[in-house]
Specification:
single chain; mainly alpha
Length: about 100
């Protein structure tokens, strides 16, 4: 899980902001009417790279969510096991105390 979270952090810190800044640059140029000065072939490749990065981020997100669900399930199962064990011990203690009270 730590590995997946680290990958998400690295992606967000290193890759995604650069892609968004590049895209923001294109949008800013279009807004001021400088669209004809944009090299569309280079920007096309950048936009494809951004889409690949977003797809990668979504895959990482799905993996992290799945990992978190598995961890939660494991924790719930362990707590259930411990609860059952605690109940069994409590029943034994009540039985012992009941027997002792009868003897006394």
């Amino acid at each position: 899980m730590e590995k997946e979270l680290f990958r998400v952090h690295m992606f967000v810190e290193d890759e995604f902001p650069a892609a968004l800044l590049s895209f923001r640059d294109v949008v800013a140029k279009l807004r001021i009417g400088a669209g004809r000065n944009i090299d569309l072939k280079a920007r096309h490749q950048e936009l494809e790279d951004i889409l690949k990065d977003i797809d990668g981020a979504m895959a990482i997100k799905a993996n992290v969510e799945k990992t978190i669900e598995l961890v939660n399930s494991s924790i719930r199962n362990k707590l259930t096991e411990r609860s059952i064990e605690s109940q069994r011990r409590l029943q034994q203690a009540v039985w012992v105390l009941t027997r002792l009270s009868v003897l006394l």
